[in-house]
Design brief:
Elements lengths: L1 H19 L2 H7 L25 H12 L6 E6 L2 E6 L2 H8 L6 E2 L7 H4 L8 H11 L5 H25 L6 E2 H18 L8 H18 L7 H4 L3 H30 L21 H6 L2 E2 L2 E2 L2 H32 L1 H15 L13 H13 L5 E6 L3 E2 L4 E2 L3 E6 H4 L39 H18 E5 L7 E3 L1 E3 L4 E6 L1
Parallel strand pairs: 2-10
Antiparallel strand pairs: 1-2, 3-7, 4-14, 5-6, 7-10, 8-9, 11-14, 12-13
Helix pairs in contact: 7-8, 7-17, 8-13, 9-11, 11-13, 13-15, 13-17, 14-15
The chain binds protoporphyrin IX containing FE (HEM).
The site of protoporphyrin IX containing FE (HEM) has 23 residues, from α13 and α17.
GO molecular function, one term: iron ion binding
Organism: Polypedilum vanderplanki (Sleeping chironomid midge)
Cofactor: heme
């Protein structure tokens, strides 16, 4: 008797799956290689037991197995959600340059509860208006003011490195660089100097990334009602509350300060009137902006400020830490960098203007971003089919652009796993190396990030002998590439 129930149950699964599946999408997806789809669950089984530290190998193997022939686009199914994986630079160009691929994929929605619809996630007119408003924050005149903030936080970071390296042993640079970068970001975003008692906000920004990455790697947690019952969701809500309360309080204070100083003229206020700084910051730009002649609400501003600190801190930290790690392992590169520092500034100070002259350092940073891209996989969602000639890109699918495997393509980068900064002296095909993405939705903070990264690296290199640590770091996926412990030795000069 029981086998009749089993047979009926299996039949029910097949009927339900057939009902839920978008047949047109399924047909178009069959052009691409991928594991065989199981009814209802799709391919979520391939994620079972996948640990964050194994995610890169997983993507690499997946692309090796399924994407290396034909279109170099592979597919898997998270239930009835079609996920396409792309690591072909010619295809990437077509995607990144096509306005139909401007929306972000549904996984980004995991962060909505925390970051609202800030610039990283918003789409259509909202994204366009916000991008227009925020772009002036990255004008070089304002970046020049931010440079002072970066300089201060770099000095504090170097004091900490000195203190922690006193016993001569290699130190874990990740936590201290994270704090330094996040403090500088908060100051430039909100015009507010973080205090030790604000650590709750800083911890919440950091922890949100961990929580969302766990959800990302577990497709069953993509189902809202399952996720809502988990500990992760409770932690996420707690972080969101801390972040929102903190940012909203600062917005209200800054709003009062701005109206007190007759809109744009902040010059006759004391710096420490209420602990806020006179310098222009992202918050001021947002407070003074209008959309359709209406000012932005506190909630609008809060989502942008939180997005700015979230999008900027892990990415910049990763780049600084991985570059220091690579330099520590390659004495010949270190020597060339020291020579360049000597030639460009000698005994003088690093200035905003002199940063442009560090050409070899630029090659080193590019090579570090190639090997360890801070945003290793980015993702778009397509809402209407696009005909690419040799195939039709299906609608309502997520397109995961695998920058990590793209940047290690041996057809473009000879000896792809080796650290060779000089390779960037040769021409690289467009879109074969896009660590800040490209097209309309490229990284708005690229210049901002590079100023902070360069300033930190130059000053650390000239003040410390940088040596390799004794343990190789292991890294993992955490939205950005992530490494909890990266040991580097520092000997003050
Ligand atoms: C090394 C440092 C950085 C790297 C490698 C990086 C990389 C990226 C990438 C790949 C994207 C595209 C994301 C996507 O399509 O989903 C992006 C977007 C973005 N980044 Fe960055 N980023 C860095 C630093 C920063 C900083 C410092 C900020 C803020 C100050 C920032 C703010 C943003 C924002 C707001 C977006 C969304 C832009 C839009 O959609 O209009 N990033 N970044």
């Amino acid at each position: 008797m029981w086998f009749i129930y089993v047979a009926l149950f299996i039949l029910f699964i097949f009927i339900l799956d057939d009902f839920l599946l978008d047949k047109r999408q399924f047909k178009l997806a069959e052009v691409f290689n991928g594991p065989k789809r199981l009814p209802l669950i799709g391919n979520v089984n391939i994620f079972l037991n996948l640990k964050p530290k194994d995610y890169y190998d997983f993507v690499k193997d997946f692309m090796e197995k399924y994407a290396r022939t034909g279109t170099r686009m592979a597919r898997y199914w998270a239930g009835n959600q079609l996920e396409l994986m792309v690591d072909d630079y010619k295809l990437l160009e077509k995607i990144m340059s096509n306005p139909k691929f401007i929306s972000k994929s549904s996984q980004y929605g995991f962060l909505h509860g925390v970051l609202g619809e800030g610039l990283l996630f918003s789409t259509d007119q909202k994204w366009f208006n916000r991008r227009r408003i925020i772009t002036p924050t990255f004008h070089f005149k304002i970046l020049e003011q931010f440079f002072e903030v970066f300089r201060k936080h770099n000095e504090l970071l170097m004091e900490e490195i000195k203190e922690k390296s006193k016993n001569g042993k290699p130190i874990n640079i990740f936590p201290i660089v994270t704090s330094s970068v996040l403090n500088a970001l908060c100051e430039t975003a909100m015009g507010y100097e973080m205090k030790p008692q604000d650590s709750d906000y800083l911890n919440a920004v950091r922890e949100v990334g961990h929580i969302v990455a766990t959800r990302f790697l577990s497709p069953w947690l993509r189902i809202e009602f399952i996720y809502n019952m988990t500990e992760g969701k409770r932690k996420q809500d707690k972080c969101a509350k801390i972040m929102h309360e903190f940012t909203t309080k600062l917005i209200e204070e800054r709003r009062k300060l701005l109206s007190k100083s007759e809109k744009q003229n902040l010059s006759n206020l004391d710096d420490d009137d209420i602990g806020l700084k006179k310098k222009m910051c992202l918050l001021d730009v947002l407070l003074q902006s209008t959309v359709d002649n209406k000012p932005l609400s506190n909630a609008d501003i809060q989502e942008e400020v939180d997005t700015f600190t979230f999008a900027g801190h892990d990415t910049t930290t990763n780049c600084i830490c991985f570059t220091l790690y690579l330099i520590s392992k390659h004495p010949e590169v270190k020597e060339k960098l020291l020579k360049e520092i000597e030639e460009v500034i000698g005994d003088g100070e690093v200035t905003f203007k002199s940063l442009n002259e560090f050409k070899y350092l630029e090659l080193v940073i590019k090579e570090s971003l190639r090997l360890y891209p801070p945003a290793p996989v980015i993702s778009r969602r397509l809402y209407e089919e696009v005909d690419f000639g040799d195939f039709v890109a299906p609608a309502n699918a997520n397109y995961n652009l695998c920058l990590y495997t793209l940047f290690r393509n041996s057809e473009v980068f000879e000896k792809p796993n080796e650290f060779i900064p000089e390779r960037f002296l040769k021409n690289i095909p467009p879109f074969a190396f896009v660590p800040f993405s490209a097209g309309q939705r490229n990284c708005i903070g690229q210049k901002f990030a590079l100023i902070n990264i360069k300033n930190n690296l130059i000053n650390i290199l000239r003040n410390f002998e940088v040596n390799p640590g004794n343990v190789e770091p292991t890294f993992e996926i955490n939205l950005t590439i992530k490494c909890d412990s990266m040991l580097v030795g520092f000997k003050p000069k």
